[in-house]
Sequence to fold (162 residues):
Amino acid sequence: MKCALHPDTETNLRCGKCGQPICPKCLVQTPVGARCPQCAAMKRLPVFKVSALYYVRAIAASLATGGVLGAVWPFVPLEGYFWLLIALGVGYAVGQAVSLSVNRKRGPGLQAIAAVGVVVSYVVRGILEWPHSTPMSAFVTPWGLLSLALGILVAVSVLRRD
Fold:
């Protein structure tokens, strides 16, 4: 029997789906067996297909949630390492807001949008604290930068769950 795509190549292999003869050159190994290139065309899972409208919704949700939480953050009477707890909450809230706005879809683009929302929250908090402190202490403190990193990590991990 001759390969359907390489007529001068003898083969005994067939596609596991359509039965078309295939040679080892055009064989595509899939989780369910050997397939021809047409049958093996793997599609992305629907949870990872994100349209432009969903990206717009995710950006709006991320910026709104980050802005609101950043405006509330300076009024929480906790400082120092307690900022880490606040950052956990901010990261989780921003990640959930993005996730809910796109019907629980996932992907690296949405993770980046959630990370930006946490950064917006941190910047809004710093701007609101600026009149009461120096610019350097409003944005660049060890606990502040650590909390920013932790918030980003949590927001991204919310959008990585299965």
